[in-house]
Amino acid sequence: MQKPVIAMNCNIKRNEEVCADYLSTYTAYPDSVERAGGVPLLIPPLADEADLREVLKGVHGIVLVGGDDIDPAAYGQEWHEKSTPIFPRRQNFDLRLVPIVLEMGLPVLGVCDGHEEINIALGGTLHQHIPDVYGMQIVHARGKELARRGEQRYHNVSIEPDSLVAEITGKTKLEVNSIHHQAIDRLGEGLRVTARSIDGVVEAIEYADRRDKRFMLGLQWHPEHLSARRPEQLALFEALVKAAIEYRDGRCA
Q1: At residue 211, what are phi and psi to the nearest 5 degrees?
Q2: For residue 20, what are the CA distances in angstroms to 16, 108, 147?
Q3: Where does 5-252 sit in CATH, by number?
């Protein structure tokens, strides 16, 4: 059987030495898609919506990748002092991309920033800095020193038993990595929370109506960094690939 094509958006960074911008993504994203049986395809920040829609016609699912912080003006707030602005060109592209993807019904896995962008696209808001709201019971951000040493921090999440996450992983408790400082506040229209950490932080979202068969899952943690050694994390990408095959075959029927 031909493998499904799974698109991914990209980060944009600035190389000050040559005064030029470049596209980037952690290799863990395409590696996870390939490991799960899909063919990863990076989409650059296209300016023309018609071109974007044409590209999306040729893919069968999408991973919305993590990144820096969306301008809070997108959900009616001012900048927080702890926020790190995402590259403006990526933000402009993502805020056009996500509504189109949801409108098309493409299978979607949103990770960290991608998870937050889904919520924003559906009218939700964010807590811009988790400690301001939830305190330090759990330290959700990895921290620069840990990052420099290549070390990780973890915490547990509780999963709703009747949720897509529980169905995919077979678990109602899951250890996840701690690499975020923002989280969902007001939930977007038509969504439900399906996982939280013990301090109350929203860790997973999906469509509220389980009769809605469109695959859409937002995760605050980073399963791509865990998928090589934790089967339940790889299963999240495998579920996306399975949904992408069904989307492709249903569209071609």
Answers
A1: -75, -15
A2: 7, 31, 26
A3: 3.40.50.880
Burial of 155-167, coded b for 16+ CB within 10 Å and e otherwise, reads bebebbeebbbbe
The model's pLDDT over 85-106, given as tens digits with 9 standing for 90+, comes to 999 999 999 999 999 999 999 9
**Over the chain, what is the mean pLDDT?**
94
Instruction: Specify whether 206 is catalytic.
Output: no
Reply yes or no on whether the pLDDT at 64 is more than 90.
Answer: yes
Do 205 and 194 meet the contact criterion of CB atoms below 8 Å apart? yes
Active site residue 10: no
Which is the catalytic residue, given 60, 155, 180, 222?
Answer: 222
Task: Determine which one of 117, 203, 224, 238 is catalytic.
Answer: 224
> 252 an active-site residue?
no
Paired tokens of 62: 């999408």
Neighbours of 49 (CB within 10 A): 11
List the chain domain ranges. Answer: 5-252
Distances (CA, A) of 185 to 70, 147, 201: 14, 27, 9
Q: What is the mean pLDDT of residues 172-183?
A: 96
Catalytic residue among 112, 117, 127, 238: 112
Q: Which amino acid is at 102?
A: L
pTM of the predicted protein model? 0.95
